[in-house]
Write a structure and sequence with these properties.
- Helix content is 23%, strand content 16%.
- By secondary structure, the protein is α/β, with parallel strands linked by helices.
- The strands form 4 sheets. Strands 1, 2, 5, 6, 7, 8 and 18 form a 7-stranded mixed sheet that branches. Strands 4-11-12-13-10-16 form a 6-stranded antiparallel sheet, with helices on both faces. Strands 3-15-14 form a 3-stranded mixed sheet.
- α1 links the parallel β1 and β2.
- The structure holds flavin-adenine dinucleotide and iron/sulfur cluster (SF4).
């Protein structure tokens, strides 16, 4: 139904393009579309393939592992994060190809956590600055959900909510019994009615496997086609190895390896790194050069630090009646009733509770972790798959300096690990602190209480983490972060970072919508600033005024369907 990969404009390595965008994922896809539509020359460099959704994707759990960044990464610390399939994507669309598309907004409090609660950090922007972009992106991708969403700053959604699956019914039953308000049927960037050339959801539950149907939003289907129509190029299977620096302290382009492993240099006026919270700091660390020996844009010493993951414990409950977890998008109902700091609890900040709905392979792993199921015991659990429901905790772990990404370049005398191009891979260290542990304990027990209240006859849980962000955080001043509030690095005036890595804190909301909203805002800033950034006509001075939100740059068809948007 959709023609995604259309003939593209092709640039040469020695063409001086306006923008080189590293990574065409959640943020990179939006930036590429905006900048191309505004008339700039822009090329997206993507380490993974340009997916043909008909040919490459399958409605099969095991067959979809290729969607992930499965290359080697090193993990460590007291609570090591599982890397690989649990975090980022590789291929055009990035993580938005395999995400569950659950898209709650951050709350106003998320942007001033330090001022309000004395923990974490404040963002250099407030909710007010991102709000027009939440409104806009919710229409572009578009989002189905309740017409009145009560948490954070109350708002509505452009498309009607989805019907409940069995897991959603469980969350509603448990919450209702305990008097906890719950949102049913979204917010989720999955079509509850057709939109342009995209059909509505058919509830087969293969969302995390890529959604062959096209009902689930990914930048591959929402923004990339419009980027190509407007003259952007996507160079797929091209791994960027280094951001190149000229003698004047500005970047002059990027060094990358093509699919055959041949090295190239692409000239560019501006480089924007959108490679995900692990690969972006890795690339900047790998781009260390004379004068910036600790990594590019790292005069603050914060590059790679303050990495965050959300607590993602999965609570599984067995019911006498059939639940059939697979028959719905996995995430389609939630409560944010425990999101904010509550002085009655012994920890700062909070958590959300969401439906999860794993398919059988993921369920088997959870049974192994939660119950030690194996062999015949595992077979017995698997025969019962249709009787299980699963709810997820999504908890705010605070940003800590020593949760970090370094290069596995052998400097610590332990790990010297490189990819096929000889580039040191990311080495991740992650440990929970007291506040995080208390939040997880409280949150986990609350979700179990909801599961019991819903009528479960057995409840077990698996500890895990989700959604890595941070490690190149934005800050008000150059000493506190890697980039300013538009993602422009403090040290290199024509180098930007724009993806989940710029987040100073992460709230208890899934990060994808915020990442795309931030990217659209940065595109508006770049359009407003044009020559000042492209050719340094402002001589390095920063105009930090807020750009106008350019709704006219939305992909075609954005404003044609849906209910009136409540503001
Ligand atoms: C199973 C799963 C479910 C999820 N569900 C949700 C959800 O429901 N809601 C939500 O909000 N979030 C969800 N997420 C998280 C979400 O997918 C990510 O937060 C988001 O996609 C991150 O966006 P990004 O722009 O930072 O990076 P990405 O979208 O990961 O894009 C980065 C891109 O850069 C490319 N790249 C990296 N380095 C290089 C390089 N050196 N050269 C060239 N290319 C490079 C990568 O291949 C990738 O395509 C989920 C994640 C997982 C794993
Ligand atoms: S349940 Fe809906 S969104 Fe998920 S894969 Fe099926 S059609 Fe796509």
């Amino acid at each position: 139904m959709q023609r995604i990969k259309i003939p593209q404009r092709r640039f040469k390595d020695d063409d001086l393009i306006d923008f080189a965008i590293v990574g065409v994922g959640s943020a990179g896809g939006v930036l590429l579309q905006r900048l191309a539509r505004a008339g700039f020359t822009a090329v997206g460099f993507e380490a993974g393939p340009f997916w043909d959704t008909e040919r490459d994707w399958v409605s099969d759990e095991a067959g979809s592992h290729k969607l992930y960044w499965n290359d080697l990464r090193i993990t460590g610390g007291e609570h090591p994060l599982a890397l690989g399939a649990n975090n980022s994507g590789k291929g055009v669309g990035g993580g938005s190809v395999h995400w569950a598309a659950f898209v709650p907004r951050f709350h106003p409090s998320d942007f001033e956590v330090y001022t309000r609660d004395g923990v974490g950090a404040d963002w250099p922007i407030t909710y007010k600055e991102i709000e027009p972009y939440y409104d806009l992106l919710e229409q572009e991708i578009p989002v189905a959900g309740p017409a009145w969403y009560p948490w954070g700053k109350p708002h509505g959604h452009p498309y009607a909510p989805h019907p409940m699956g069995g897991v959603g019914d469980t969350l509603i039953a448990g919450c209702t019994k305990l008097g906890i308000p719950v949102s049913a049927g979204g917010p989720v960037a999955i079509l509850s009615a057709s939109h342009g050339d995209r059909p509505h959801c058919i509830y087969r539950g293969f969302c995390i496997q890529g959604c062959k149907v096209g009902a689930k939003a990914s930048t591959l289907v929402t923004h990339v086609p419009d980027a190509l129509k407007n003259g952007a190029e996507i160079r797929d299977c091209c791994m960027v190895a280094r951001v190149s620096m000229a003698k004047d302290g500005r970047t002059d382009g990027i060094v990358y390896f093509d699919a055959e492993g041949k090295e190239h240099f692409q000239r560019a006026r501006v480089v924007i790194v959108c490679g995900y919270a692990l690969e972006t700091p890795r690339l900047l660390l790998n781009s260390a050069c004379p004068g910036q020996e600790r990594g590019l844009a790292n005069s603050s010493g914060t590059l790679g630090k303050y990495l965050m993951a959300q607590a993602g414990n999965v609570i599984l409950g067995r019911f006498e009646n059939l639940i059939r977890m697979y028959k719905a998008p996995p995430a389609h109902a939630l409560t944010e009733e425990f999101y904010e700091t509550d002085p009655k609890r012994d920890f700062a900040r909070g958590f959300a509770v969401q439906t999860v709905g794993p398919l059988p392979i993921a369920f088997a792993k959870q049974m192994m972790a939660a119950k030690g199921a194996w062999g015949w015991g595992m077979r017995r659990e698997m025969m019962d798959y249709n009787h299980w429901s699963s709810l997820g905790l999504l908890g705010e772990i605070l940003p800590w300096e020593d949760n970090r990404i370094e290069l596995a370049d052998g400097r610590d005398g332990r790990h010297d690990a490189r990819d096929r191009f000889g580039l040191p891979v990311a080495q991740v260290t992650f440990s929970l602190k007291d506040n995080d542990k208390k939040m997880i304990e409280f949150g986990k027990n609350k979700v179990m209480e909801i599961m019991w209240a819903a009528g479960a006859v057995e409840v077990v849980q698996e500890s895990r983490y989700a959604h890595l962000v941070g490690a190149c955080r934005m800050s008000k001043t150059p000493d506190a972060g890697v980039c300013d509030k538009f993602g422009r690095t403090w040290d290199v005036p024509n180098l930007f970072v724009m993806d989940g890595s710029v987040m100073p804190t992460q709230g208890s909301a899934n990060p994808g919508l915020t990442i795309q909203a931030l990217a659209a805002r940065t595109a508006d800033y770049l359009i407003s600033q044009k020559e000042a950034i492209l050719s340094n006509s402002a001589n390095g001075r920063r105009d930090m005024s807020e750009p106008p939100c350019r709704r006219s740059l939305a992909p075609p068809g954005t404003f044609t369907r849906g209910i009136p948007h409540l503001r």
